[in-house]
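Folds abound. A case:
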Amino acid sequence: MTSKVRKLALAGLAAASALALLAGCGQAPSESGSTKAAASKFLPCMVSDNGGFDDHSFNQLGYEGLVDSAKKLGTTYKKAESKTASDYAPNINSMVDQNCNLIITVGFNLSDATKKAAAANRDTDFAIIDDNEFTAPNVKSIIFDTAQAAFLGGYAAASYSKTGVVGTFGGMQIPTVTIFMDGFVDGVKYYNQQKGKNVQVVGWNVDSQKGSFTGGFDANDTAKQVAQGIIDQNADVIMPVGGPIYQSAAPAIDDANGSGKSIAMIGVDADVYNTDPSVRSILLTSVMKGIKPSTSAVIEQTAKGKFSNAPYVGTLKNDGVGLAPFHDFASKVDGSLKSELDTIKSGIVNGSIKVTSPASPKS
């Protein structure tokens, strides 16, 4: 699919997510008439990072969780979309001024602004998505041990690669990005150990914690150039980590494939096959977070007076993270890959396969 066609497809895309991951968040109790009435007066609100609510990734998934829970509760909601980092604090304060009962901020980059607003407004509950080390009495962290799911993605990438080189790059070098990259690299290493292979990873070094980054989460020429740099190192599977930056990696992959190469991409956060059909032709799989259902659960629990600042941590064990199906690539991957991944997942869950990252949640 060309870049021009992709843009048209994105413009008309109806946001969707097939990720059904809720275990570990807790199920809501049955509602009485009085709790239903109380919930209808509850006002949940959300502030995006500068990726925007149409990023086909974690902002969009959080927003979908907000919309779904508000509908279920029979209440309204408010949102504020950030265009730049300078919008974070004003947008959060705007939600406070509009008497929001729960304000959810989306992304590690909103940590400082969230911390200040929470300290100044103790009677308002907050939740933040993707901050691994946030502690405050009125703030709940919604975090994910994505190294576990990315480990599966790295193994799958190594299995699929024909060139013996795979790559990854990130938006910003922050824990919620590098945790994907750590897991990916370690999954490739595990494949090499199990198969006696020597698949190489470009774009990230786990030991030195150094690699390739675009400097932000925008889909722009810089992101395309970084993706091209990975391609130029002979990688035929690429995992861009950082919201919309994959939208710039995709045209670089299209260009290379049009010149006779065969390069696949791995999505992150959502099952990108469902959230962005325009990249289906190049999408091997996606490393997923249960952002939508966990956001909904936190909102619904808070509306029922059950707010807790104990973090929600998504893992393979509670289905809070996972690897998406291979979809259109199912016939292209090795016939034993799925069963191998199921075995590896079981090993990670029971602890016989250790997956760690400096960025892994400490809770």
Observations:
- The two ends are 42 Å apart (CA to CA).
